[in-house]
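// run 5 | inverse folding | seed 20
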């Protein structure tokens, strides 16, 4: 469904097939066709495997070799490998063994490999800055697989969705599979409501089942996000004086992944002259509840307070400049259509500094001088 939706969005299936052809996989065809589900049309991506093809169970090491010997880009190889590795970790945990001993059955089959790798190639081709996802409808009931009948969501799916908001609308089908869970869990930067954005295009990927209660389509929306110059947000705060400082980093990571716009700590003195930290989380109204729950679950806080705040931000966009060391993204800030701020992306400078074996400052200073030229 992910692959079908991205092709429906406009990704060229021919280019995907060309890259997939470099994998050492035999006896399959990736076919796409337009389908109608109720009043919605979309694309059905189908991996048809020849009956004579041997569907062997592969190890994680087999899939790593498969990816390494292909013509996938380095980014696609890395991301596909990470997705399979995450699935392998989960399977190893369920079966009380190691990653090296796990044999993929459904996920190691030709059709699942094509689904995952094809989806990775399609996503990478779009060159997206961020990916947002809604809470996932997992379905309910039972599903038959290589391990017999399993409850929905399947144990692997459930573990792959750890930290991801899910629900069931009562449909007695498996609506989220391990491969889908692994991919969305890997790529999504945030789970929640559709962000404010200018829509460029959309696409629909059809599933196998015809479900009376719903179209059984996965929708993807491509858009540009422009920060509003004025908006009302929520500040969530709590004071903490009894927590291991090492735990702050994990809590902050969880808050950012769940949609926090900013998270910061301020040293304070509490009652009885106790040194403490005030943790502040900037949030939209729609994310307030989820972020509050993370604060209560991942810190030693017994309660939080919140209040509404206003925020004004510059209109933002990204541009790329070419330094003598390589390409660097520059964050542009505009006011009334005029560029008034330009700043190099630190992570780009850091990656180049490691690659070129020069200091971050050397690369940053050159990128910053080019950024200043953009303001002029």
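// decoded
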């Amino acid at each position: 469904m992910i692959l079908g939706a991205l092709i429906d969005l406009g990704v060229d299936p021919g280019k995907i097939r060309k890259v997939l052809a470099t994998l050492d996989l035999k006896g399959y065809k990736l076919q796409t066709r337009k389908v109608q589900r109720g009043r919605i049309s979309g694309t059905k991506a189908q991996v048809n495997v020849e009956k004579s093809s041997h569907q062997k169970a592969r190890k994680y090491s087999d899939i790593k070799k498969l990816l390494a010997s292909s013509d996938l880009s380095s980014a696609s190889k890395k991301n596909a490998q990470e997705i399979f590795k995450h699935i392998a970790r989960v399977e190893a945990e369920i079966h009380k063994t190691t990653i090296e001993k796990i044999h993929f059955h459904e996920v190691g089959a030709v059709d699942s490999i094509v689904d995952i790798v094809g989806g990775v190639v399609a996503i990478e081709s779009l060159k997206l800055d961020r990916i947002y996802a809604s809470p996932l409808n997992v379905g309910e009931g039972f599903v038959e697989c290589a391990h017999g009948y399993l409850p929905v969501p399947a144990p692997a799916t459930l573990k792959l969705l750890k930290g991801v908001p899910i629900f069931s609308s009562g449909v007695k089908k498996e609506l989220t599979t391990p491969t889908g869970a692994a991919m969305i869990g890997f790529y999504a930067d945030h789970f929640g409501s559709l962000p404010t954005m200018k829509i460029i295009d959309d696409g629909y990927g059809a599933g196998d089942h015809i479900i009376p209660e719903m179209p059984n389509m996965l929708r993807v929306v491509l858009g540009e996000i422009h920060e509003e110059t004025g908006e009302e947000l929520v500040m969530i705060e709590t004071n903490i004086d009894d927590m291991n400082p090492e735990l702050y980093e994990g809590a902050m990571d969880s808050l950012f992944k769940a949609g926090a716009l900013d998270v910061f700590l301020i040293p304070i003195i509490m009652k009885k002259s106790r040194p403490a930290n005030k943790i502040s989380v900037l949030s939209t109204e729609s994310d307030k509840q989820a972020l509050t729950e993370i604060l209560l679950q991942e810190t030693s806080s017994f309660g939080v307070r919140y209040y509404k705040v206003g925020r004004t931000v510059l209109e933002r966009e990204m541009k790329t400049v070419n330094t003598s060391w390589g390409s660097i993204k520059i964050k542009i800030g505009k006011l009334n259509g005029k560029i008034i701020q330009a700043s190099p992306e630190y992570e780009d400078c850091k990656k180049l500094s490691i690659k070129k074996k020069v200091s971050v400052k050397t690369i940053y200073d050159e990128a910053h001088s080019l950024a200043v030229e953009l303001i002029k």
